[in-house]
Amino acid sequence: MSQIVTRFAPSPTGYLHIGGARTALFSWAYARKLGGKMLLRIEDTDRERSTDAAVDAIKDGLSWLGLQWDGDAISQFARAHRHAEVAAELVAKGLAYKCYCSPEELTQMREEARAAGRAPRYNGHWRDRDATEAPDGVAPVIRIKAPQSGEIIVNDHVQGKVVFKTENLDDFIILRSDGTPTYMHAVVVDDHDMGVTHIIRGDDHLTNAARQIVIYNAMGWTVPEMAHIPLIHGPDGAKLSKRHGALGVDAYRHMGYLPEALRNYLARLGWSHDDDEIFSTDQMIEWFSLDALNKGAARFDFVKARKHQRDLYPRGRPQISVQGDGQYSGRSRTHG
């Protein structure tokens, strides 16, 4: 096998949240175990919400956790020309096409589909039309020609064999009318060009995998191996959110957590090695495997997180300044 390459691909629209940090940790550990690389790609195509401050916060959070990426961080936005180039190549091959439907026409399609008891999807109106029928003055989108029969199978390291019926896929957009790529398209092109061999991400992306495989197959590219990990939940079993006190990595730093303690606790959220609770970073790298990732959702518990730090530093440990609801005072103190 070629060199293992993983990637962490956050959107710079806010802080590095705890779920993203865990994804980065697993991607980093797997690459380090097998002598590979973990790359950092900043998915900054949302220009209205992406900020330089968020990019800096992500990099700082990863560095503080000791999760150093390989090479320079890559801006997805800076690669827009490459995304457009691949979309044009698919059109030239007859595997994608220009669609000139107006928003009003798309709305009507959805309403008619609902009325007929079908899923409200694009109906392929421009899939086989001749370019001479294109209306004047309308900037088209580019849609991929999704398979109209058969199955797409994702053999996932966590979820197992997942089968998607292609009849449930529509000809989704890969390039918008302004020439910018959709997330679905940009991710595939970037992962291919970066040589990514293994994708580790949240299971909320599992349905995206089927659509992305459509693009991989159309381009004749090798599909990376995938591991879709369950999202982190709060102590009550609901998806971790602000009401649980979900914070950015920087907040845990200010609370007084040490990076090795937080790494240790995050590793136990969705991965296990026998009954080991406390282990060194070197041990985690040695023991880590994708097949040991848990299919069930892990629960973030502040009490257990603080206990991990106490167990790692029974003497002279930092004092963690945190309230029971997960909020923090903004100060951290150390003693001993």
Description:
- By secondary structure, this protein is an alpha/beta fold.
- It folds into two domains: 5-75 and 231-312, HUPs (Rossmann fold, 3-Layer(aba) Sandwich); 78-186, Alpha-Beta Complex (Glutamyl-tRNA Synthetase, domain 3).
- Helix content is 34%, strand content 13%.
- It has helices at residues 18-33, 52-65, 80-92, 103-115, 183-193, 206-219, 249-255, 259-267, 281-287, 302-312; strands at 5-8, 37-42, 74-75, 96-99, 141-144, 151-156, 160-165, 173-175, 198-202, 225-229.
- The strands form four sheets. The protein has a three-stranded parallel beta sheet with strand order 1-2-3. A three-stranded antiparallel beta sheet has the order 4-5-8. It has a two-stranded antiparallel sheet with strand order 6-7.
- Strand 2 (37-42), helix 2 (52-65) and strand 3 (74-75) form a beta-alpha-beta unit.
- Residues 321-336 have low confidence and may be disordered.
Summarize the structure.
This protein has 336 residues and is an alpha/beta fold.
| Relative helix content | 25-40%
Q: What's the count of strands?
A: 10
Looking at CATH, which topology of the largest domain would you report? Rossmann fold
The total number of structural domains is 2
Structural class: alpha/beta
What is the CATH superfamily label of the largest domain? HUPs
User: What is the rounded distance between the termini?
Assistant: 49 Å
Strand order of the biggest β-sheet: 1-2-3
Regarding quaternary structure, what we see is single chain
Beta percentage is 5-15%
Please describe the topology of this protein.
Elements lengths: L4 E4 L9 H16 L3 E6 L9 H14 L8 E2 L4 H13 L3 E4 L3 H13 L25 E4 L6 E6 L3 E6 L7 E3 L7 H11 L4 E5 L3 H14 L5 E5 L19 H7 L3 H9 L13 H7 L14 H11 L24
Parallel strand pairs: 1-2, 2-3, 9-10
Antiparallel strand pairs: 4-5, 5-8, 6-7
Helix pairs in contact: 1-9, 3-5, 5-6, 8-10
